Input
Amino acid sequence: MTRRDAGPRSIASRLVDSLTENRWIGLAGLAIALLAPFVNATPYAISVMTSAAIFVMLAAGLNIVVGYCGLLDLGYAAFFAVGAYTSGVLSTRFDLPLVATLPAVLVATVIAGVVIGAPTLRLRSDYLAIVTLGFGEIIRITATNLDVTGGPSGIYGIPGLAGDRISFYYLTVLVVAVAVVGAARLGRSRLGRAWRFVREDEDAAEAMGVHTYKVKMAAYIAGAIWGGLAGVLFAAHLSAIAPSSFTFLQSALVLMAVVLGGMGSIRGVVIGAVIISLLPELLRDLADYRFVAFGVLLIIVMLVRPQGLWPARAREAARSTAPREAVR
Amino acid sequence: MTQLVWNGLFVGSFYALVALGYSMVYGIMKLLNFAHGDLYMLGAFTGFAVLGAAGGVSVTMALPLLLLVLVLTMGTTGLAGVLLERVAYRRLRGAPRLSLLITAVGASFALEYGMRAAAGADPRVYPVRLGGTSLEVLGARVTLQQLALVGVAVVLMVGLNLLVTRSREGRAMRAVALDPRAAALMGIDVDAVIARTFFLGSALAGAAGVMAGAHYGKIDFMMGFLIGLKAFTAAVIGGIGNIPGTMLGGLLLGLLESFGTFWLGGEWRDVFAFGVLILFLTVRPTGLLGERVTERV
Output
């Protein structure tokens, strides 16, 4: 069922392949992001683009958990919230610059990842989905109830990371680019191969000596760190955070971006995140039906094109398909 | 004290009704139907629409009318559940589990925001409100209507249990839950059995939705989200896939919440419930009455 069996491929599909598999495509994307302010630099446009970049980082983080390792996390906004609140609380209470809160953010997100991952990663993957959903709610409700997090109205007056909007945008783009490349490199590492093995067949992976629990935990914690750091950017961007930013809707949108773009395909996920975060700006008039469309789209993607818009190409395919076909 | 127990049992009977559908669907096709809570929401809104169409209701007629609405709603949500299975789940039955979970999330999303687009984002006030005469039972204040609702819930649950344990249909369901392939080889129409299971589970959720609407008086498009989570918690506590266990789990969760609210304050109620869920998954993931299942490769 591979493409090779279909005989000689048309020029068009080869052209598409050479474009989508081009190694410079990532740099081209970065260049577009860096040049965008020269096209339109209104404060509104910059703000939208900054949010989109932060969203890309979230999607790259969730892609590690869902795309590489196949663990469905429905409470990803919780890590986003942990990062944003840790940096927000520390920087406003103790007058720290935001950069100085980063170690605390890392510690807090890793703890959150371990607390939620340790009991559930031993179980079947669908338990994880619903426990993370509950965890997302726990974090949001806790932030609403506690005094130190400012209750329902949240925290305001969080210091920024860079002077003006434009330089913060560039900083965000660079951080996000590093995060995306980092996620991609992780996916190609020894650990990344173990993640994909676990995704494809957990029992076989276990039998081959992969410590699946540890490997899944690593994916989960990596996802938590990416989410937490995106939260810091988010807090710096808006300078105010409230529990209403971290609802299930946010988690679902990130998941949508990953699924739409192609689970496990870092390029697809970046494109998916850009589409999901910019689409609402273009479809303002359809606000009521937007989320209905997202839900229906999730189902359709899964039914019709489960690999997403821009799927990851299996690197091992060239070697492994031929013998497998022969055995059958 | 007895008041707390009564409140817990009352809320717990709602949880149990919703959890049953969760548990049955999980038992038969190992799918967590995230949209299940939204079928409860759909039930509440269907009941709302039917009651609105029926016009003004006198207080004495409220209960019989509500029972009629209950039956109508159960039919509607049941069919909605069957439709959901047909459109979103059936084609993916052989696909990786992640795909099914994601379509379930998509279905939940589409139902929630579809209802928001149809009925608006603001909460609706239920036309029938069950208040009324209260009795003193062992120091707890109990209204007759609460008793009636619990009675309906118990009847539905007993009926379901009889259906599953005594009837031909129930035997087919249990067979499919044990081994779909072997069941198909024995001449059971697996698709039809799964559709029926969805019908039953969704109908129970719809019934719970109407009852909750009549009891709390207010419904909104997100009401199914939290109850879906709670129902899952209840199912896990009792042992997911196990029908008596799920009922027990629902009542137990209601009691735990009732006491948790008393000790910690209402704003921590949901956190407490999810804390219990995580604790249970750590200590006894198969639940109180669930059997230890070894995963087959």
